[in-house]
Design a protein that fits this description.
CATH class of the largest domain: Alpha Beta
Structural class: alpha+beta
Distance between the termini: 47 Å
Number of domains: 2
Order of helices and strands: HEEEEEEEEEEHEHEHEEEHEEH
Largest sheet: 6 strands, antiparallel
Number of helices: 6
Number of strands: 17
């Protein structure tokens, strides 16, 4: 659902106008979080990809995969960038300037975005720690994870895409960029993140690309979304260990961002149904 815009928001987002340099609220914003499309709420950029370019507008050297589209500008010289979800005007993209190693600058109007601080995102929990794993259908991953001692709760949902508040049918198209994931809340005094990550690699096939078992599609990809640097280092270490053992691991390791809870009928699916997973089983790999 598109937001009703103010006249100035409409001028920039729909009529492809430009706000004055250094006038936008996010030009100097250095807080951690995620930038959403102001018109439709789709996730566009992460704070870790923002940099200071002194151009007068917020600058990013990378977008969330699939979130931004490029097209030739009406002036015949520049490349316009728009929200892939709603087509709202964001600004322009430039390459070859050498500001960062990625050699790309997304020059974005602040008014085209809405910033959500990291502390307002639903990934971490104050009284424990959170892990986020995607290994095919979330029903099976949830079932296996919830049986591990030290796990406080599990929740099926979606992460990694460009559409805000996606539903199951939208994710199933494979076009939103989301993966089916399980958010695991656990007590680090009772079970370590490394033990959970090892379990994750042993309850799904980390060598299968583009799906898991009979479930195929990008939404069923193998992925770990880390919530801190320690988790990232642990995940990378385990991938190296598996590769040293001869496994051709395709699991991607990505920073966590907004977790969107799946519909209620997906939660505790096998427990409620009284059956067991059809494509997840324990296989010792370490």
């Amino acid at each position: 659902m598109l937001k009703e815009l103010t006249p100035f928001e409409k001028f920039v987002i729909q009529d492809k106008g430009t706000e004055l340099p250094f006038s936008g609220e996010y030009v100097r914003n250095k807080a951690k979080g995620i930038y959403l499309c102001r018109q439709c709420g789709a996730a566009l950029y992460r704070s870790e990809d923002k940099f200071e370019s002194s151009c007068g507008w917020p600058s990013f050297d990378s977008e969330i995969p699939g979130a931004v589209k490029r097209s030739p500008d009406a002036d015949g010289l520049r490349t316009e960038i728009i929200c892939a979800a709603c087509g709202g005007h964001l600004g322009h993209v430039f390459t070859g300037e050498g500001h960062t190693d990625k050699n790309t600058r997304h020059c974005v109007n602040s008014i085209s975005m809405q910033f959500v601080p990291e502390e307002n995102q639903t990934v971490t929990k104050a009284d424990g720690e959170t892990a986020v794993f995607g290994g095919g259908c979330f029903w099976g991953v949830e079932y296996m994870m919830m049986k591990e001692p030290g796990v406080a709760s599990v929740q099926s949902g979606y992460m990694g895409g460009h559409l805000r508040q996606p539903c199951y049918e939208q994710v199933c198209t494979g076009k939103t960029g989301h993966a089916e994931v399980v958010k695991v809340e656990f007590d680090p005094a009772a079970v370590s993140y490394e033990k959970l990550a090892r379990l994750f690699f042993e309850i799904h096939d980390p060598t299968q690309e583009g799906g898991q078992g009979p479930d195929t599609g990008d939404q069923y990809r193998s992925v770990i979304f880390y919530t801190n640097d320690e988790q990232k280092q642990t995940a990378e270490k385990l991938v190296r260990e598996l590769k040293d053992r001869g496994y051709r691991v395709v699991t991607s390791i990505e920073p966590a961002h907004t977790f969107w809870k799946a519909e209620d009928y997906h939660q505790n699916y096998y427990e409620n149904k009284g059956t067991t997973p059809y494509c997840h089983a324990y296989t010792k790999r370490f």
